Amino acid sequence: MDELRQRFADGVLGAFWVLLAPLLQLAVFYFVFVELFRSRAAETGNYLVFLAIGFWPWMAFSETVLRGTALFVEKAGLTQKVRVSKIGMFMGVTLASFLLHAVGFLMVLSVLLFSAEISVSIQWLLLPLIWLVLYVFAVSVGLFFSVVNVFVRDTAKVVGLVMTLWFFVTPIFYPVSALPSIALQLQAYNPLSIVVELNRGIVRAEIVDVALYPMFVVVTVCATLAAGLYRRVSRRLEEFL
Amino acid sequence: MSGTPLVRVKNLSKAWSLCSTPAQRARALISVLLGRQAEGSVTLVDINLDVYRGESLGIIGSNGAGKSTLLKLICGVLHPTSGSVELNCKIGALIELGAGFEAERTGRENLYISAALLGFESSDLSDKIASIIAFADIGAYIDQPVKHYSSGMVVRLGFALISAWRPEVLITDEVLAVGDESFQRKCIRWIEQYLADGGTLLLVSHSTYHIQKLCKHALWLKDGRVHAYGDVFDVTQDYLAFHERLSDADSNTLEASGSPNEYRISSVLVNGESEERIRPIEKLIHCAVCLQSPDGRVPRLGWGIIRGDGTAVYGAVSDMLDALPRECGGHFEYQLEIDSSSLLPGQYTLRFHAMDPEGLRMFDSVERFLTIRGATRELGLVRIPHKWSAPSGESA
Fold first, then answer.
1. Which of A206, A224, B141, B377 is deepest in the core (most CB within 10 A)?
2. Distance from CA of B315 to the nearest CA of A (A)
3. What's the pLDDT score for residue A2?
4. Which domains occur in chain B, in start order?
5. Do A236 and B98 touch (CB under 8 A)?
6. ipTM
């Protein structure tokens, strides 16, 4: 929570900014894609809804991973002077970063509800579950690269590039059906793709035909790898900070 | 000084991996993953230490001796390579400047964050913060970002925070040196009160004055090992003497010329022993010095006491008092008794010179080393006899 306050305490708008930022982003999307490009595709339905619901899970994931990757190096000054739990600090900061975008997503949902673009359904109760999987995945990837970044300082930059690439291979701006069939099959192993699809399906009360099992395997493997790496290395991180 | 120690350090060692290039760092990651030990520099070797409640321990040593590493290991910021640190108390540590303050936030905000990290009770938080701000006494700067602070102000704030927290063990690493004179005094007064109330202190400082003032015991770390551990005066005096000799060795190398045609010292016995280091048995030091003479004339003996850093304390030549040696088979033996009681604690060199019969030219020299021990805060070289007189009459 400290992190959450820190991010906005410095800004003039303070807490107001947390609510405003997602709405501004949504307005930009509306202007660019609906008014300017008049993007409309048969597969996507209402394009603004399609884009917004896919975009926020991605933002939550991407920001959490990037924030996490830089964290151990960034907070070296603190962890080398004060006795704090490194992993506790990591979890706190990444959770704050993630929650921020989760709140943003709720804001966007309420606006879309208000403008009658979507309607509430019983399936929405599944949303927290999807976001929990997303969070576990984001923290695992972030923790893994945060540890690697302590040793190989270029990691943070490479992760930044990879995230940009990842953004475009994940069906966020385009429907998954626009992909060539080989890429379509690979998407089963891209948890982000599954999460985005599920998120869309649930919000729009549609039936989504995806296999969940590869996603769970990928997320579990990542979480195990990250936890294993951290446990192995944590006691000696300071030597390389 | 009984019961379980608050801090128990057992066979503690710490090695650091030294890697500078990215490739070395990547390799280091693999070797850490494989569980290999660090191969770089070894900072601490096999440290054993028990700190009991109410103890005050000063840690001294040259730069790079491992003092800060030891403190960081004790307060859990670092993890040991081998050995263990057992803690049975809450520890308050002031390690390096900043003490974990965030540069972008104001002093007040940082206090609230740190107070939360330290686990202050929220009921009396605002009172505590007010007293911290009063102690730090940095005026309007308290509402400025910490990045605008001078290093002294950061330390003031850090120390004020710790003083309000009242840890069972206080660890400070060279923080007193940064504050100004009046804040140093304030800190020292606070630490003295804290110790009097049963607090425990671990203090790293290069100021042996502070160490002597605040600590009962001292630990001298040298190249990562415990070089000396014991009474604060013994250890700090040895430590100072070590540094005095280091600086002396640079400036003054003694030439010991000894051709057979010169007056020479053939043997020196101090308290009946010929060892270089004099074992202090009592205040009186008995010396028996044998001189050789190339021409049968009676050589003179000069002697002097030099402090570890080369400062001459006293010197005299035998002809000043017309002292005469005992002659036996071409050797001339002088007997000399020196009263060392007025020397202040420290490391001294006792130097003997063979001199010509006129007492003008110095030939050979022989040195013996002498350590005077004692618990005193007197300053200088020798004790000057003096007396305080009680003020006469009643003062209002």
1. B141
2. 52
3. 52
4. 54-247 (3.40.50.300), 264-372 (2.60.40.2550)
5. no
6. 0.71
